[in-house]
Specification:
By secondary structure, the chain is mainly alpha-helical. The protein has 19 helices and 2 strands. Helix 4 packs across helix 11 and helix 10 runs antiparallel to helix 11.
């Protein structure tokens, strides 16, 4: 009976692949795809581009942030509808960064733990956490200094006075003197790593402290569960994820634990035989999972009741999420997890996300995230507003109904805006490439130097530690036999 059932199943899967235009994959290629994890880099690159697009939307098409409505009363525009509106969903793509951070950072330690090398897993985890701190802080500081210099030279003034919401909201003012400018630089560098503060010279850096916090969550969580059996390990991580929702309400973070811990669970699942077994069903299972994930990631941050679909998701969220949870972030995070499940079980999705262009995007994703704000406030603003005559704009004042008049450079036509975006973002991608090629290796050397010095490997510019003479003198015990 079983061979007959298997025959029916194989025939059904072949028909499903044919109906979707999906070519059959060679068994060896499929096995290779299911063992490859470089797809995570490709997905991270896509997430970086969508974060940039969300900021561009906030500059020139803020109405797309709302789920409804466009030019016709009660009828949403195409780019306001689910999935299409992901261009404006920056918060969902930041959640993707966090889930992927948990997945990638946990992958190697979990591999070692599953092979019985628990001590090596802990050593690797400690080193990765140490390096992560430097590899986040050093590039962020360099990007802040670069933006600070541009600001103090007056090259952000068009951005600050242009009629583009994200630009005039997050463009800093020139300091009154170079002495004040140095003080402002120190405040900006500190703000990146201070809870609930915004670095005025690079607003997107608000997320970096939560990425660093997430890497610490990975270290602490695996330190507690690395010796457990895989099933119990995943159970404890699921408990941490649910428990963390309470932390996020009180701490007001972007659901760091709720994204990081499931990322670790997905890493654990990817190391089992389950994805390979489900890969036979991936033509049937993966598309609905990916579609559902993207749909949930589309939940807007504002006026969620203005469209039927977002209102329904909001009501459902009120039933399943704890009170006071940010529903847009909650559904966005859950959507990222569902999307990753669809990718993990699908060799075709893995292979698609491992294409060379996407791998290149993944390689430059962090430079894109760090540099896009600077390029938007400089080149994008220059190309968009240069030559425009300032016009008065009425903006809301303190009291309800009150307005105040300000002069700003008006937005030009759509064609010029499109050309400006193309040129400035193209220049940003080139800069991100050379940043990854020439600047990141410098930070890698600094990190390696600090690692050798602090871990006592070689002189590191000072005395040796574990491998040679102790850094501090050792007390000699006297009077003992």
């Amino acid at each position: 009976m079983r061979p007959k059932v298997n025959g029916y199943m194989n025939g059904y899967l072949e028909k499903a692949r044919a109906s979707m235009g999906e070519p059959l994959m060679d068994p060896s290629a499929q096995k290779s795809a299911m063992q490859d994890t470089s797809w995570a880099d490709g997905l991270r690159g896509i997430a970086a581009l969508f974060v940039v697009s969300s900021h561009i939307v906030l500059c020139f098409a803020r109405r797309l942030v709302l789920p409804c409505c466009g030019n016709v009363e009660g009828v949403p525009m195409l780019w306001q509808r689910p999935i299409f509106r992901l261009l404006a969903q920056g918060h969902s793509w930041v959640a993707m960064f966090l889930v992927l951070s948990g997945f990638v950072n946990a992958l190697k330690p979990l591999k070692l733990a599953r092979s019985g090398q628990v001590e090596n897993a802990l050593t690797n985890l400690a080193l990765a956490s140490f390096r992560r701190t430097f590899r986040l802080m050093l590039p962020a500081a360099a990007a802040t200094v670069a933006s600070w210099v541009i600001c103090q030279l007056g090259m952000y003034e068009l951005s600050r006075n242009g009629d583009a919401y994200w630009l005039y909201t997050y463009t800093p003012v020139m300091s009154y003197s170079w002495g004040t400018a140095l003080e402002d630089l120190v405040k900006g560098l500190r703000a990146t790593w201070t809870i609930w503060e915004i670095n005025p010279y690079d607003q997107p850096q608000w997320a970096l402290i939560y990425l660093l916090e997430g890497s610490m969550f990975v270290f602490c969580a695996l330190l507690m569960v690395v010796n457990l059996a895989p099933a119990w390990r995943m159970g404890m991580l699921a408990f941490f994820a649910l428990w963390s929702l309470d932390w996020s309400v009180k701490y007001r973070d972007p659901l760091v634990g709720f994204t990081i811990f499931p990322g670790i669970i997905l890493a654990e699942v990817s190391l089992t035989t389950l994805p390979e077994r489900l890969s036979r069903l991936s033509p049937v299972l993966a598309p609905p999972l990916v579609f559902l994930g993207l749909f949930l990631m589309s939940q807007p941050t504002e006026l969620q009741r203005s469209a039927a679909w977002s209102s329904y998701i909001l009501e459902l969220g009120n039933k399943i999420f704890p009170p006071q949870i940010d529903m847009a972030r909650g559904w966005g995070s859950l959507g990222c997890m569902v999307l990753l499940v669809g990718v993990i079980i699908s060799p075709h999705a893995r292979r698609l996300l491992s294409r060379k262009p996407l791998l290149w995007l993944g390689k430059v994703s962090f430079p894109i995230y760090l540099l896009h704000g600077t390029f938007m406030r400089s080149m994008l603003a220059w190309f968009t507003f240069a030559g425009q005559t300032p016009q008065p704009f009425e903006i809301p004042a303190g009291n309800e109904g009150d307005t105040v008049s300000v002069h700003r450079y008006p937005q030009p036509g759509n064609f010029r805006i499109l050309v400006s975006i193309t040129l400035s973002m193209g220049a940003m991608l080139v800069a991100a490439h050379y940043w990854a090629k020439n600047v990141e290796p410098v930070f890698g050397k600094i990190t390696k130097y600090a690692e050798d010095m602090m871990f006592g490997r070689g002189d590191g510019g000072g005395r040796q530690g574990n491998s040679g003479r102790p850094m501090l003198p050792v007390r000699k015990e006297q009077g003992r036999d």
